[in-house]
Amino acid sequence: MLFTDGACSGNPGPGGWAFILRHPTSGKELVASGGEPETTNNRMELTAVVRGLEALKKKSAVEILTDSVYVG
Questions:
Q1: Which of 10, 13, 15, 62 is deepest in the core (most CB within 10 A)?
Q2: How many alpha carbons lie under 13 Å from residue 29 in its C-beta half-sphere?
């Protein structure tokens, strides 16, 4: 399961993204976040998903949970 979020202050403006990648069986989690000094809300929402998927170690089916209408 991949939980994602992104936001920025102003649009464009400084922004950040984060994800939690949780293994469905073990419950083990990987958490990561980052940001950009000048970005948009949609870019940060997408970045959270992309970075989360990039963190996968092997080909997997992943359920993505996001509050983003743009990503969803």
A1: 15
A2: 8
pLDDT, position 72: 80
* Conformational region of residue 27, where left means phi above 0, alpha means psi within -120 to 50, and beta covers everything else: left
pTM: 0.94
**Residue 48: closest CA among 29, 61, 26, 65:** 65
The backbone torsions φ and ψ at residue 18, rounded to the nearest 5 degrees and listed phi first, read -155, 155
Instruction: Supply φ then ψ for residue 53, to 5 degrees.
Output: -70, -35
Is there a contact between 16 and 8 (Cβ–Cβ < 8 Å)? yes
Per-residue pLDDT tens, the chain, 72 aa: give them: 999 999 999 999 999 999 999 999 999 999 999 999 999 999 999 999 999 999 999 999 999 999 999 998
